[in-house]
Amino acid sequence: MAFRSGTDARAPDAACEALSLDIVATPQGVRAALARAAGMLSRADLCPTVQGCIELVLAEALNNVVEHAYSTSEGGRIAVRLDPRGETMLLELRDNGRPMPDLTLPEGQLRPLVGSGDLPEGGFGWYLIRRLAVRVTYRREAGTNVLQIEMPLGRQSKGI
User: Fold this and answer.
1) Any idea which fold 19-111+122-152 has?
2) For 1-16, what is the mean pLDDT?
3) pTM more than 0.85
4) Taking every annotated instance into account, which residue ranges of this chain make up the domain Histidine kinase/HSP90-like ATPase (predicted)?
């Protein structure tokens, strides 16, 4: 799975170079990728809140790939790229697992809570991703899932 540089890509900030990882689609692989990403983001000297939001969104996206795209297969791989682009950080994940249902991103709507003991298992990840990102896109090309999440690095953050 190779990354193609888009024609609209701006040069990475000198303090923060792009990071590309090829990880095994397991919880251990996700943890290792998150540790590497955290190191890269720390070197970028980002606001701790911005760094935390990027790490949270990346963790949610990677865990979704492991849990849903590769839930019935072993040995899957995920190509991960973090690419600073001016005021945003592009997170791109590519995998050859199962496609999203109907080739469509989940809406990311919160489910209503009925009572204090009725917290649903899951269902918050896509809400967080959509709420914290500037833009989220998904496509399937030649048997590969391509998820792109554009995260704000500064003033354009929407917050939770």
Assistant:
1) Heat Shock Protein 90 (3.30.565)
2) 39
3) no
4) 24-149
